[in-house]
């Protein structure tokens, strides 16, 4: 599959080195002058209904300029390699997501949110006989859920998501399922201790 | 707020309503048309036709051919006709719950569907047949794999060949994965098929059976993830239509990854250039010369595998 080979650094990473560099550069170059900014970094666990567990990492950023910290922008990488396919015969597949999240009640501990993800999906069938089948797709998925901000820099969230684009094995990869539940646990690495002490 | 509760109540009432399809006497399930194997099992099943085989008959290959979800023995009629005169027996099994009344189908479980395969296999063994093979389309592929994971063949004569035509592990329509959530609101799903096909396939698919189908393929998928090994002396081949609109072609990926031969080798997969589901059944279907060639090639391959076993 020529489409796969285009991204063949380490066999399965769809981002050329320059793109990966851009993502790292993006987070490092976030403004440091702002007083109130969050960079939540952590883990994302996802289960498609009646299909795989796909787990990975997530990061999202916000500051006062992003609509008073109601809007978060971020990136996630989740894979069945870190879920169902770990130590099993399940198909190895990767999801690269760019996320925009709108937080309701940002000053409260319990924070409902809506999110829109977009990104790229690739499955590795690991056998040339299946090269005739589609294995990549664009990802678009709205999510709605509930987050909880602790008295220290930890946040937890759970949401229900829906992949608008799914695969039927003819026009898209057959292992891309519609409905999923995701949970994430993140740590705000820009947190200042006094902020949380003040909240107590 | 009252308005919202009123709408929620309305949705709940509608969801709870009985949704019976409009069955007619011209359809399978309408109470008039039944699968012929129910009347004359001896014309379809070898265990009924030859209950006491001669030594020569006992060594003749018997191919148990079973059909897909909602289908009947009709699905393998063309193969039985093709195989005539080739020195094999074809035993057409009607899956449990299929081929009769709609309510019987609605109340059946995938274990019921599978029980007909088990019954025929055991009857053939008891009669003394020693050269048995399995040929299954679509859901029967999943049912055969479940027999492997359930160690059904342990301690008994295992089949020589297992041949799966468009087996389903992953459905093309991913909405099936949500059937446990949406099912009670649906009641049943109507299939787009011709009036002639209505005589051999249930036109209406009760949500209860769709849930059974989802449970079966979910179990089989997990069994394949854990890994299965074929019995000693058994071979398996998957024939998969590349553009199958019903059983996602990726099903073949999961089967190839999930099943190994007794010696640890890979099972065979042939990706067939077709856009038909169960491409071996062409009767009552518009088809091209290429479709006919695919059918003939596969039938010949099946016969060759069975006779060389």
First-residue to last-residue Cα separation of chain A: 56 Å
Helix/strand class of chain A? mainly beta
Distance between the termini of chain B: 71 Å
Question: Counting H and I runs of at least 4 residues, what is the number of helices of chain A?
Answer: 3
Main sheet of chain A? 8 strands, antiparallel, barrel
- The ordered string of helix (H) and strand (E) elements of chain A is HHEEEEEEEEH
Uncertain spans of chain A? 1-17
- Main sheet properties of chain B: 6 strands, parallel
Mean pLDDT across the residues of chain A is 84
What does this structure look like?
The complex is a heterodimer of chains A (200) and B (309). With 200 residues, chain A is mainly β. Chain A has 3 helices and 8 strands, in the order ααββββββββα. In chain A, strands 1-2-3-4-5-6-7-8 form an 8-stranded antiparallel beta barrel. Chain A is elongated, with a radius of gyration of 18 Å. In chain A, 36% of the residues are buried. The N terminus of chain A is likely disordered. Chain B has 309 residues and is of the alpha/beta class. Chain B has a 6-stranded parallel beta sheet with strand order 2-1-3-4-8-10, with helices on both faces. A two-stranded antiparallel sheet of chain B has the order 5-6. At the A-B interface, loops of A face helix 9 and helix 10 of B.
């Amino acid at each position: 599959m020529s489409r796969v080979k285009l991204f063949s650094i380490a066999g399965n990473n769809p981002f050329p080195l320059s793109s990966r560099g851009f993502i790292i550069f993006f987070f490092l170059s976030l403004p440091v002058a702002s007083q109130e900014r969050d960079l939540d970094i952590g883990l994302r666990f996802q289960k498609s209904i009646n299909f795989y567990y796909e787990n990975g990492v997530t990061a999202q950023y916000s500051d006062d300029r992003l609509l008073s910290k109601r809007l978060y922008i971020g990136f996630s990488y989740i894979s069945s390699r870190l879920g169902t396919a770990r130590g099993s015969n399940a198909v190895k597949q990767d999801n690269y997501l760019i996320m925009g999240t709108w937080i309701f009640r940002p000053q409260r501990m319990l924070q409902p949110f809506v999110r829109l993800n977009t990104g790229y999906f690739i499955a590795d069938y690991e056998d040339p006989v299946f090269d005739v089948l589609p294995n990549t797709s664009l990802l678009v998925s709205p999510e709605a859920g509930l987050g909880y901000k602790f008295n220290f820099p930890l946040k937890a969230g759970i949401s229900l998501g829906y992949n608008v684009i799914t695969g039927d094995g003819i026009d898209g990869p057959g292992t891309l399922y519609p409905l999923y539940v995701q949970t994430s646990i993140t740590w705000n690495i820009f947190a200042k201790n006094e902020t949380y002490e003040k909240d107590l | 707020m009252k308005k919202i509760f009123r709408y929620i109540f309305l949705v709940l009432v509608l969801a709870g309503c009985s949704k019976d399809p409009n069955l007619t006497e011209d359809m399978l399930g309408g109470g008039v048309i039944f699968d012929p194997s129910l009347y004359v099992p001896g014309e379809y099943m070898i265990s009924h036709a030859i209950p006491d085989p001669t030594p020569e008959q006992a060594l003749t290959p018997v191919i148990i051919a079973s059909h897909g979800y909602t289908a009947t023995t009709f699905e393998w009629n063309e193969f039985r006709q093709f195989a005539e005169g080739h020195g094999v027996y074809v035993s057409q099994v009607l899956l449990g719950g299929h081929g009769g009344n709609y309510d019987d189908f609605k109340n059946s479980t995938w274990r019921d569907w599978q029980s007909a395969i088990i019954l025929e296999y055991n009857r053939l063994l008891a009669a003394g047949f020693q050269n048995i093979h399995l040929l299954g389309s679509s859901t029967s592929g999943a049912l055969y794999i479940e027999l492997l994971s359930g160690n059904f063949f342990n301690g008994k004569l295992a089949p020589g060949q297992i041949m799966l035509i468009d087996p389903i592990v992953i459905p093309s329509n991913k909405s099936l994965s949500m059937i446990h959530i949406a099912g009670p609101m649906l009641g049943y799903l109507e299939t787009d098929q011709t009036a002639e096909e209505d005589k051999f396939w249930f036109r209406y698919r009760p949500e209860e059976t769709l849930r059974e189908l989802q449970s079966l393929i979910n179990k089989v998928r997990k069994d394949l993830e854990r890994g299965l090994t074929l019995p000693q002396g058994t071979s398996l081949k998957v024939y998969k239509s590349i553009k199958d609109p019903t059983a996602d072609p990726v099903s073949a990926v999961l089967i190839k990854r999930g099943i190994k031969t007794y010696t640890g080798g890979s099972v065979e997969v042939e990706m067939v250039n077709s856009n038909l589901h169960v491409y071996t059944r062409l009767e009552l279907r518009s088809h091209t010369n290429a479709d006919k060639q695919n059918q003939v090639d596969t039938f010949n391959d099946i016969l060759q595998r069975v006779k060389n076993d």
